[in-house]
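Lecture 7 notes: from sequence to structure.
We start with the chain below.
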Amino acid sequence: MAEAVANAMESETHLLVQAGTGTGKSLAYLVPSLLHRNRVVIATATLALQHQLVERDIPRLMTAIGGQKGIDASYAVLKGRSNYACLHRIREGVPDDQGALVEMPLGSLGEQVLELREWAESEATSGATGERDNAPRHTERVWRQVSVSARECLGKTKCAFGEECFAERAKEKAAKSSLVITNHSLLAIDAIEGIPMIPEYDAVVIDEAHELVARVTQAATDELSATDIERAGRRALRQVSEDNSAEDLMDAGEALSDALAELEPGRIDRMPQELSDALVLVRDAARACVAAFPKEKESEADAARTQAKAMVSDVFAVAERMAASLESDVLWRNDRDAQRGGPQLCVAPLQVWGQMRDKLLADKTVVFTSATLMLGGDFGVVASSVGLKPTERLVPDGPSIARTETVLPWRGIDVGSPFDYAKQGILYVAKHLPPPGRDGLGPAQLDEIVSLVDAADGRTLGLFSSRRAADAAAEAVRERLPHLTTLAQGDAQLPELAKQFVEDPHTVLFGTLSLWQGLDVPGDTCTLVMIDRIPFPRPDDPLMSARQRAADKAGVNGFMSVAATHAALLLAQGAGRLIRTSTDRGIVAVLDPRLATARYGGFLRASLPPMWPTSDGEMVRGALKRLSGR
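Predicted structure tokens for the same chain:
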């Protein structure tokens, strides 16, 4: 893998590398990245991997290099501005919704804010990073009291604390470093949205690349609600009091609220006239309100004014995008957070592969790596999703393809795994169960879950398609197997649940999506990974359903290219929770017979690690009993 990465960077050829857990893939891309002539960016999807790189892998590599001549071993971590504490906000106060600076929130919130302020000051004194990940425990609401977004920032030259600024120091360090470690979202903002966030580079390694499309989509998704507009208007009120633009903006927010009230939750295929008119009203009112802000001189930087103007500018940008009603965007009403601020209007790109191809792959050399890049046994699905064409793939002994402005050659390699999946793992598909229905887990599924958990004597990670299913399974196991400890997602914070699961083998942990990826529990703690159903996207998912329909219109099988691909990726990630070391043993049990009986089952099975397959439940229960030492 290291040789393939080095060759890709040297020849400016894109590379997809599937590398199983335990191959040491981070070392395999870090070494050629350090040897590359120019700066290399490493982008990860999760904080856990970022921490692993910065706290373990890179320091060990630097120690091993031992000051070799000609190798620039400098590195830096770079995140979005809101991930760093803001010294101006901490020292000068936080504007409230009316734009006034308030010194301290009251009650327990105030105590947490005070703790964060003291932490940030100690970080500034010691020359530390001021990163959110290193802060005392806190909520999102508390962190907003000590941080600012990029739009809200006064800028280094206008801020009295610009020289001490954590975010500016991180940028300066990155500009002097050979390696820059960042995340998928910041990479998307820099490369695809064209907002300069990362110092100049010509090659990027994208680890956890199976997450990239989702993260890029997330970074390009906008939301707007009447509450957002009202809050922006209230902030602007004191700054533009000489005209009525702030009041007009709040009135436009009410018009949007009325228009949203007439809509059903879900995707909006054809925009109603009332909604279109409301969005135009919000857009024009926000534009007028931005224009009404007094121009400030560099010496007159005002945090309340800057942040109020940033909020109104955000409203304008989102309303303008939504009012344009582009075919390349998907629009929907979302009621998930309706209790906090009413329904939201959301907009996301229908596809991101075009932007990724034109704005990232055309300018840089990109190495994509993950344990799950081959879906259905081939790289084609993932390659197409990120903007690479099947006709551009370079194959061994095949014709060479020159890189041009319109042709982007790429290679795909599978470097394998150190694990012997056929000997270490069993894939059990419960063919005898009825297909899953809309009403959640039925008696047959619950009986199967209890019998498997009983045979494993705990030691079970249950991955469920919904919170309701996870809770129902947990309740059944608690009732019928009271001697075991049964934990369900939501009982405590995820790190606490994972710690308890690891420490006690007679424990069961049931949960939903956040457990499918990123949970690392090697050893005897986890000998059974149970998946209740094939994780297809919900039929009413606005974005996925729109993408599926667009694929059908383009003459491609929308179900296979969108729904089955989504399911294959999650299944592979979920099954990957079982074998984490060369000594792990266990069973992946899928309680959905469609994996064995449906036509698409072969595509899904080909995306999983090559475990020994069976549908013999008694044999599986016997194997679990032996693994549990009974």
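Points to note: Residues 478 and 602 are 35 Å apart (CA to CA). Confidence is low (pLDDT under 50) at residues 97-103.
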